[in-house]
Amino acid sequence: MDEKRFVYADNAATTRVDPRVLDKMLPYFETGYGNASQLYKLGRDAAMALEEARKNVAAVIGAQPKEIYFTSGGTESDNFTLRGMAHSKQARGRRHIITTTIEHPAILRTCEALEKEGFSVTYLNVDNYGMVHVDELEKAITPDTFLVSVMAANNEVGTINPLKEIGALCREKGVYFHTDAVQAFGTVDIDVNEMNIDLLSLSGHKINGPKGVGAIYIRAGVLPETQITGGGQEKKRRSGTENIPGIVGLGEAARLKLLEHDEEVARLRHLSRKLIDGVLQIPATRLTGHPTQRLPGTCSFTIDALEGESLVLLLDNYGICGSTGSACSTGSLEPSHVLTGIGLPAEVAHGSLRLSLGRFNDEADVDYILACLPKVVDRLRSMSPVWKG
Amino acid sequence: MLYSDKVMDHFSNPRNVGELENYNACGEVGNLTCGDIMRMYMLIEDDIIKDVSFKTFGCGAAVATSSMATELVKGKSVKEALELTNKAVMEALDGLPPIKVHCSMLAEEAVKATLADYYRRQGIDPTPIVGNIESANVVTHDVPKENE
Predict the structure, then answer these.
(1) ipTM score of the complex?
(2) Could you tell me which residues come within 8 angstroms of residue A109 by beta carbon, excluding any fewer than 6 positions away?
(3) B residues 22..41 contacting A (CB < 8 A)
(4) Quick one: A269 and A238 in the same domain?
């Protein structure tokens, strides 16, 4: 194990574009560059590519193609949902939104912006695994509630929420249900009809597709107020000349996810199991997130007596890319809100390391991580005044 | 967030890491909640810092500023070491990102806390000499008072 390797273990942050996705996209830069709104063949071909991508995205979640609208990514889809439903006629004057404390900042900062406008938001606590409890949600719903937004799977600890139960409750209470499925799309089995989901956000760059493109699923009949106005594209729901290469990439990435789903989930579970078992051999380490209801590739640990940013930087010297929720790395001097939300004290949250495996990781990558990580941990602990080794 | 090459060097190859075999001063600053703890050891003879080392729990900047601070005080007189500022540490490292400036403060305080310990061991009240060190008040475990 003397040779340095490059091991990208931060797939939860972003992913490499699959070569098959890139191949599908390239013609739309070079020859198929038409504007999908135009009358001539070049334009009509672009429009057809758009519709093929739409079909492929819809198929992953059991939606109809006409319920899929393309955006610039997960963040835009989250903003569209929250701001759009808050200002929609369908809110019928109701002003209360329920979400969770461990959502992505795209949800949290937007909720805060809506609070400044006079909306009220309940941020539900999650349990120590990061899971939402449906009975807590039920207690929080009032006649003033019009929207519940709960992420399908958490980006930091990987916990998958009980979408079917949440959806059933929301349907019963007459409340719209949105899920930020950016981490879960294509990995977790989601059926928007079985789960009574009204809106869903998804993103290309988390599923081996390109950055800068995503989509929002909007159930037929649900009418969030349009946020991006202009030329009237996407049935006036989201204007702007369509990013055909990006959307084609997203469509192909979605198609491959669905096609290869079962083997890929099994493969990632196997690799993660090996990684987790190996890391937990290191003294004073812990796995966070739910033991079984978790994303197959996301492995988030806490490692006592060392600090996450230095851990990530030293791993980088070995060619390994990982991430941390430690305060020093968030840019705000507070540890990650997710780790705090699952009840970890700051001292423990500082030693967090997230390794997230994906399509292009293999067994040799896991072996390499397991060879390097203990060395890095030992080194940092030997330098640490709080390690009583 | 961009660290300078000097910071990355002092982080990846820190100087003076560990616990001195012979030391007669030890100070510790920071706290676990903040995520930064620096402990410094010094061997001071004839008012000269003959040897110095550190142990740090913290980010890249924390390790780098500790390392640089020990380099800057090694071989210096106690009087000179008391004059070490966080600015000097940052300059020696070719600067720090704004959010990491507080780590350099901690390095300055670690030096002062260690010198305060030196004075205390001699029965001299360190406060008029060293001043009030903000972060040297929370020690989360026993700081060794004597060499074993």
Answers:
(1) 0.88
(2) none
(3) 28, 32-39
(4) no
